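DATA SHEET
Item: assembly model
Revision: 1
Owner: S.N.
Input lines:
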Amino acid sequence: MDVVARILSLALKELLALLRDTKSRLILIGPPILQLFVFGYGATFDLNRVPIAVYNEDRSAPARELVARVVGSPNFRLIREIGHDGEIAPLIDNRRVLAVLHLGPHFSQHLLHGEPAPVQLLIDGRNSNTALVLLGYVREIVTTFGTDWRSAHGQAPPPAVLKVHALYNQDLRSQWFIVPGIIGILTLVVTTIVTALSVARERELGTFDQLLVTPLTPAEILLGKALPSVLIGLIEGGFILLATLFWFEVPLRGELGALLLGMLLFIFSAVGIGLMISSLATTQQQGILGAFLFLVPAVILSGFATPIENMPEAVQHLTVINPLRWFLIVARGVLLEGDGYASLANTYWPMALIALISALIAAWMFRHRMA
Amino acid sequence: MRLRAISKTFRAGGMEVRAVDGLALDIARGGITGLIGPDGAGKTTLMRLATGLLTPDPNASSATVHRSRQQRDPTVELRVLGIDVLAEPMRVQETIGYMPQRFGLYEDLSVRRNLELYADLHGVAHAARASRFAELLELTGLGRFTERLAGRLSGGMKQKLGVACALVRPPPLLLLDEPTVGVDPVSRRDLWSIVQAMARDNGVTVLVSTAYLDEAEHCDDIVLLHRGRLLGQGPPRRFSEAMRGRCFHVSAGSMRRRALQLRLSRDPAVLDVVLEGAGARVVARAPGALSLPALAAEVSDLVIRPVEPRFEDAFIDRLAAAVGSGRAPAPLPTAATTSRPGSGASREQPSKATHAVRPGGDAPPIDAPAIDAPVIEVSGLQRRFGRFVAVKGLDFEVRRGEIFGLLGANGAGKSTTFRMLCGLLPASAGKVRVAGLDMRRSAPRARGRLGYMAQRFSMYGDLSVLQNLRFFSSAYGLRGEHQRARIDWALATFELEDIQRERSGDLPLGFKQRLAMAAALLHEPEILFLDEPTSGVDALVRREFWQRINALAESGTTILVTTHFMDEANYCDRLVIMADGEVLAAGTPMALIERARRPQQPEPTFEDAFIALISAHRKASEQAA
Amino acid sequence: MSDAHQGTRTDYRDTVDTVGSIAARRMRLLGLIRKETQQIKRDPSSLAIAFVLPVVLLLLFGYGVSLDARNLGIAFVVEQPDADTASLLGAFRRSPLFEPREYRDIQTAERAFSARQVFALVWLRSDFARRLRGHGDAPIGVIVNGVDANQARIGTGYIQGVWRKWLAGWLREQGIDGAPPVVLEPRIWFNAAVRSRDFLVPGLIAILMTLIGALLTSMVVAREWERGTMEALLVTPIRIPELMLGKLAPYFALGMGSMLLCVAVGVGLFGIPLRGSVLVLLATSALFMLVALGMGLLISIIAKNQYVAGQMAIITTFLPAFILSGFIFAIGSMPAPIQWISHIVPARYFVAILQTLFLAGDVWRIILFNSAALLVMMVLLLGRARGSFRKRLD
């Protein structure tokens, strides 16, 4: 009972100290909200109104029809129609357009004779991802045009077509993919930094010795430091979750409880790692640097923006110790794929294990460094 | 240096603080001028104004309304070496030497690199450097450590290096901002001899601010500041001469010193009283023979003899006049007043017992240790850091109700010993028993029975006074009614009620210290550890502090203290002096002073005794090496 | 009195003429630079940010991070295996992009799909062969996991590509004219192999230089304020421009060194082409480095404490450089307000220069336009820093 009261009073003190200081209060509230919106809107792989140019050497109706279909797509925006070859290179080189659609003078001739009519698409490959996505859009339009053409001219349609249906995210909106990831990233960043700096700040201010001469044991101190971080993580994560559901309107298809359980375990693991950094850092600068050195790879190797499956085998194995990796599966699983407790059990235990091991290491190092 | 109508206001948390308030001052060229005043008197601000780092406020009281920001107020004048600082700060900075409070050293650079950097900045020609550096290294005694990182130097050596850096190119004016804070007496003496040599041989004018009043005697001229105003200026002798006839030494063989001091401090005729030697030193409110009829009636062997006035006496007098009341705060009620009903009885007994075995009459003349069992037992205590042995086998005992001092030069192993005693650092070898508990096995339980006050302010600055007290009381396991009662006790005893909701980081130093002490006493510890509790604190606050400590010791709390102020050693019942991790001497302050009595030094002070011991030890170890 | 002053006069003889002379200026500047360099050498955390972090990030991005889909798991539910289904599966097996798995019934396949073991599910019902020979337009259902919209889009494109190629071949074998009337011939300039690494690594250089310039510089300057050494520096004959130059020069060198390291690793290890001229690369990098240093200096003057400086640097420089610079996400596709904000992110201009220099070559319009923007920012930032950096504490 005494122990619980002591830990609670330490936790209360931590919270008060964090919230009374204007600077740390700002750091807890301002950046996460800013990042939520910048990430939520800025981090997108979708292409909207991409500038393109058209070089149409064939003035016939079918050619115009195809061009109209491409230009009419909401994904593209016609910047210029050009008249000769020489204009292509400067437009692309100078990034005026991302692609040039080129129909040769004999396009309709080929088409009418039933020969494959070539359509050239010159794409700026400096951003390879944009290039691929753009190619996909144009290919779809061209294929549909071809199918329509065949049926309009009494030719047999292809015997079978692939009807692709995207499950969980029918309109393929990047935001639905990115925003659930932000819940994880921001919660991780805030929790880790708050925890990582908590001991270092006391060491620098000289209050740590005062704490150590009280009857509080090292384990109690660690617990007292961990509790407020967990609370702050939960509030932060909860807030972003609300924004995800009601501002960004990402659907909630699975069990909310399963997501909250995952979030709790995830925060435990973030706090554990934060405590590990904390027990090593003697100054705040080291604390920030340590947190930074953990956070950057953790975010990059989490599958937040780039799929883990694309990574080399060895790196993929490494990601199992990254709590963010597991939480992203939980967040996206529950929100988009409608997962529940059972299907996420295989993400819960790795996070619990990470939390347990990191906390044990932190406690061991803490004791070790005091000696 | 010439100042006219200089003010400087700072804004902190919505409050305006006038650090320097309409100051008019002239400081003559040549010699050493001391800038003296309590904490917050505006010493540092004045230094920074003189260097052009701060600009003074426009003169509010002057009739001339300054028309625009560019237009300078002609009544505000600040000249250093004849240069108008407000107009040409660069020229001042090109000319003077300045050491800020934290010495301005790059701790991750070596001694030589620090010197070279400042030589580059001051444009000292390469050809002239070798001889100049040799001279400075010789002067500061840093010759052996040129390749050592500045961060690895002891506090005293850092300060000397700081001064050396400010002197790479001998400046006509040297400004030193509190150069001796936290430095042991030996290093302080060294530093002063460097400064005096500079002033004497190179004709450097020195302006030095300090919180050590005994250092005033080294200065040619004193500027006494209080709350940004000039309280007095003149040679130190003129200050102390004014006190002639008001200073006495009072002793009574039959009365213990602390009880005597307590009685004296309540006497209306007494302005100030500090412990010294076998008795107390008293400053009377009015000149003339000191008569203490009430006390004389009670104590038969009262001896009152006049003594030479000191600068400190004048300081207290002037400050008391400025503050108005002139009385240090009411002494501390005994810690046991609000004892918890159950355990309180047993707690109270020992303190009563101490009173009982020390009746006025039959106790030995100088405070004898109580006859209780030792509360702190140290035997064969050792601490190694890698191959370096910081503490080499200490043995001593502290008894209940004693004030026990741990003294030594910087780097003597005091702090290490201290940290081992309160369980912050495990011992490498040896035995430590505190409050009857083995520190190695039951440290958390032992920690529950001791209080600790660190050198730096170590309360949570972001929390209010009340929140700090609440936290520390719960950390010590106090709950419910008892916790409330103890917090109320602390707020009342340390006069913190009015400021209980304030952010503790914004409090003035004196309040911070009271808060730290209140927090350390919440759980009624048997032993109180004080690690340089008065470092950087001015004389007034120190007096108030010691009064509380004395009262506490009277009520039976054991107190272990480290300090750099030699006059504070007089407050200790017994003490040990450490050097290089060993005990050099142990005993009562009187006994130690007695040992330093020589024909050429018939009336040694404790500081003389201390320096004699340390110097002898250094000589011996140098010969051995 | 006058005698004492005479004494100091004689001492002045071993000083280099006057404080304003070129020799004195040079001595002060060199002294500061030497000091800063030594501090960098002694501080492992600066070196970690300057040289370890770049290498770690380069390796992560070079090897670990890729937007290029590969080894996509596809579940084929083949209800009735025959020559046609075998041929189709064979086509997918031959592609390096896919890892097809065969299932006999839809239930097990769906389980694998919802357990995220496969990315897509193709259901070839028992009438697949009949449909192929039927009237045409028979739908064949494909389900892809749409959670990662970008991957889904690219993956779908690849699946369609393999399918079309196989179908054309199959039709030819059957002697049916099924050639599509229009064929799209894409030419992807500058990055024919469409490797995302080729555009990520150049952009990464901008991120790292931002880190060194802004984060590291702001923290070391803030440290001087915190430790009180700045106060001692200010009360020396040093001039503000000298102080700024002395601070910036070593970090400028550090940043450029880190940039060269990145270029060497990028070109040497990852085989990223460098099509533009090295000289232009150096010149524009130097320009950007100055902008980053200006930001760092300004932050440190405002913050004066390491904790706040570090946080400010991460929020105002690192994150925008990461997200709003076009490093990964295309600026053109962001909502208009965010696009406007991106104009005040210096990294945006440098990323554009870098991607062009590495992949396209010396495209002067882009280089000059973006350099001009950087130049304006540099003047503004350094000017502002110079303006607010006073030899004053108030």
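QC remark: Chain C has a mean pLDDT of 84.
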